[in-house]
Design brief:
mainly beta; Coagulation Factor XIII, Chain A, domain 1; 28% strand; binds 2-acetamido-2-deoxy-beta-D-glucopyranose
């Protein structure tokens, strides 16, 4: 129930990378930097500094649309996005204790430049995590994490009540609120195994121990089991 005016207003206030969940909505405006959040509110785990809300919106129990304005990346053209589900009420704010249920594989977005840019992306059918039994009327939280190139992450959430996919209380999903701006590209994130967990150490054959690893093991008493080519790049 976030009006487009509010989104426009919120984005106008953005000065660096931030995420607005434009559909189905968000917990509230956390595009704030002030004395309580001197580094910016949206960097706070798990939901960008806003505790559980009670003005929930509705979302289909079978999964549905999520539209984002990933914001403006001062100095970064790319980011990784994660969309997770949190269930339960065991957290101090009465919400989920964690948001540990990924709904889609993480994906990359590619902005047009290192300058700030507006724009919307929308995944029209984000599924529920597999093998989770969710019921109509259940309260859950959807978390969007935007991982910046420097490794810090921005958090934004929306608290929803699950309803049947044809429930009239659902906000209509259409080309006004669910679209991909042409200036934001997508990328797949592949995980390439360079050494499997438990794989035996290769001896000799040009394997290099980097100075950084040697120093770390001396200082911390930490002994790397395998020192391979990857470390040599450090
Ligand atoms: C809940 O209320 C806050 C504060 O008024 C508002 O910013 C937010 O958009 C509302 N959330 C939903 C899902 O309507
Ligand atoms: C900072 O902004 C947040 C969100 O609007 C608010 O809850 C908090 O009280 C503010 N802190 C100060 C010191 O103004
Ligand atoms: C879901 O949340 C709403 C709003 O906070 C609350 O009124 C309702 O009782 C909750 N439902 C369940 C099943 O906990
Ligand atoms: C996440 O929270 C759920 C519900 O409270 C709990 O069952 C689960 O063990 C938690 N998972 C992790 C990884 O903490
Ligand atoms: C879901 O459950 C089925 C049947 O038990 C199992 O084969 C499948 O691997 C499970 N999927 C996930 C993602 O856990
Ligand atoms: C799209 O749906 C929203 C409500 O979610 C509505 O306000 C808007 O008018 C609709 N746009 C079109 C083109 O139907
Ligand atoms: C936006 O692009 C993504 C990635 O290609 C795609 O999965 C999604 O369906 C697109 N959204 C719309 C509304 O076409
Ligand atoms: C070293 O490399 C050679 C040639 O690739 C290979 O035959 C040999 O098994 C390797 N030795 C070890 C200990 O990995």
């Amino acid at each position: 129930m976030l009006s487009s005016q509010l989104i426009a207003l919120a984005l106008a206030a953005v000065t660096s990378a931030h995420t607005v969940i434009s559909y189905p909505g968000w917990r509230g405006d956390n595009l704030v930097t002030n004395a309580s959040f001197p580094y910016g509110m949206q960097w706070m785990y798990p939901c960008g500094g806003i505790p559980l809300t009670h003005n929930r919106t509705y979302w289909p129990v079978t999964g549905g649309a999520i539209a984002l304005q990933p914001g403006w990346f001062q100095g970064h053209a790319t980011a990784q996005l994660f969309i997770n589900l949190g269930i339960g009420d065991e957290a101090p704010d009465g919400g989920p204790l964690n948001m540990s249920l990924p709904m889609v594989p993480q994906f990359g977005i590619l902005g047009p430049s290192k300058n700030p840019y507006p724009g919307t992306i929308c995944l029209p059918q984000v599924p529920m995590p597999a093998n989770l039994s969710l019921s109509v009327g259940q309260n859950v939280t959807i978390q969007v994490v935007e991982l910046a190139v420097h490794g810090a992450a921005l958090f934004s959430c929306v608290d929803v009540t699950l309803v049947e996919p044809n429930d009239p209380r659902l906000n209509e999903v259409n080309e006004t609120n669910c679209f991909n701006s042409t200036d934001i590209g997508f990328s797949d994130v592949y995980t390439i195994t360079t050494r499997a967990s438990g794989q035996a150490q290769a001896q000799g054959n040009g394997t290099v121990t980097s100075a950084a690893v040697r120093t770390l093991s001396q200082v911390a008493g930490w002994m790397p089991v395998v020192v391979g080519g990857l470390w040599a790049l450090l």
